[in-house]
Design goal:
transmembrane transporter activity, OB fold (Dihydrolipoamide Acetyltransferase, E2P), 4 domains, alpha+beta, Elongation Factor Tu (Ef-tu), domain 3, single chain, six-stranded antiparallel barrel, MFP_Cation_Efflux, 6 helices, four-stranded antiparallel sheet, Efflux RND transporter periplasmic adaptor subunit, RND_pump_MFP
Length: about 375
């Protein structure tokens, strides 16, 4: 009998144990559902230690802009393509791409036997001119005293002036080739000439090597001065009437940096390309930023044409996760801490540290949001949900 009682007691204990286990599992499931309900609990200590901040939607001015793109360029007077005024062989070219040059600095040396012939013709013409000048003067005196005929005087005058024109022409050719006519007249004849830089700047391209023959139509090198770089932007015809001088420009160089730089509209094009229906806008870059760029960089730009007030939050209050934007709405606050709920929102624009919220009237005027620390908090929650 005692044996049967013992078996019954064990069965009762087993049933009680199973029942308690089921209750614990049910309790665990309820707790889990409450945890996953979307509410985030934040204690006052966590809030203060992380130096979080709370704020409300406020009305802020947002820029109305024209979207455009273009390149960074230099004015025409800051770019020089070097070529020869006369054909010749490159005797020496000491410069490489990137070298800095000063105005008047030697760039290349050209050699050509024809240079000798040019100097010889000039020298012969100069010497002949001296004789023709004296003969002209003599005939003029004799004609004035009626000692010689008008025909002899006019012949002497014609020969002298014809030779003078030839002399001046040859002299100009030598000067263009950077030869000194006075040195040639002194008997110093050379077979080489130097080409000098017309501007300060840097060598951006070299098209020749030592020994290359170049004609007057050939490019030898290109020099660019980047002290006065600017923006050349393409604007569609439909946006052109919104633009005017001195409007602000915000631009980025997407291939090099995420930073936004400042500029200003300087000139708005007055002609439109008939095929693309695009006009050009010339913009100046802030002086403090000019040294950050080089000509040829692609830019994306916004030209600010006006402002429009929008309800906005500080940009740190809006967190992007998996292609969606969220804010943390404070649903309850007490002495212990905060209850926050992530709300998906759509944004309109970012400007000067604020983000405009679409359909902001879905929130009450006195609604509070976590404006600093939301990124860390939401990402921690996201990581926890993944696990």
């Amino acid at each position: 009998m005692k044996y049967i009682k013992s078996i019954l007691l064990l069965l009762i204990l087993a049933l009680v144990s199973c029942n308690n286990s089921n209750k614990e599992e049910a309790s665990s499931e309820i707790t889990s559902e409450e945890t996953n309900s979307g509410t985030i609990h934040l204690s006052k200590a966590q809030f203060e230690n992380a130096k979080m901040e709370v704020g409300q939607l406020t009305e802020k001015p947002f820029a109305e802009t024209v979207q455009t793109s273009g390149v960074i360029d230099v004015p025409p007077q800051s770019r020089a393509v070097i070529s020869a005024f006369s054909g010749g062989y490159i005797k020496n070219t000491p410069l490489l791409v990137g070298n800095k040059v000063s105005k008047g600095q030697r760039l290349v040396t050209l050699e050509n036997p024809e240079f000798i012939t040019m100097q010889q013709n000039y020298l012969e013409t100069a010497e002949q001119l001296s004789y023709l000048k004296s003969e002209y003067d003599r005939q003029k005196i004799m004609f004035d005293e009626k000692i010689t005929s008008q025909r002899s005087y006019l012949k002497a005058e014609s020969e002298y002036k014809s030779n003078l024109a030839r002399y001046n022409s040859l002299k100009k050719n030598l000067e263009i080739l950077n030869m000194n006519p006075a040195s040639v007249e002194a008997g110093n004849i050379v077979s080489q000439v130097n080409i000098y830089s017309p501007i300060d700047g840097n060598v951006t391209q070299v098209f020749v090597n030592t020994g290359t023959y170049v004609s007057p139509a050939d490019k030898i090198m290109e020099i660019m001065n980047t002290d006065h770089i600017h923006l050349e932007l393409k604007v569609f015809e439909k946006d052109l009437l919104q633009l005017k001088k001195e409007q602000d420009i915000l631009f980025t160089v997407p291939e090099a940096s995420k930073e936004t730089f400042n500029g200003e509209v300087h000139l708005v094009g007055t002609s439109i390309d008939p095929n693309s229906r695009i006009a050009m806008v010339h913009g100046h870059i802030d002086e403090k930023d000019e040294n950050n760029f080089t000509a040829g960089m692609f830019v994306e730009a916004q030209i600010i044409t006006g402002t429009l007030n929008q309800m906005a939050l500080p940009e740190n209050a809006v967190v992007e996760m998996e292609g969606k934007n969220y804010v943390l709405l404070i649903e309850n606050e007490d002495a212990e801490g905060f209850e926050l709920r992530p709300i998906e929102v759509k944004t309109i624009a970012n400007y000067k540290g604020f983000t405009a919220i679409e359909k902001s009237d879905q929130f009450k005027a006195d609604s509070n949001f976590l404006t600093k620390g939301a990124f860390v908090l939401l990402n921690e929650e996201g990581s926890g949900n993944d696990h």
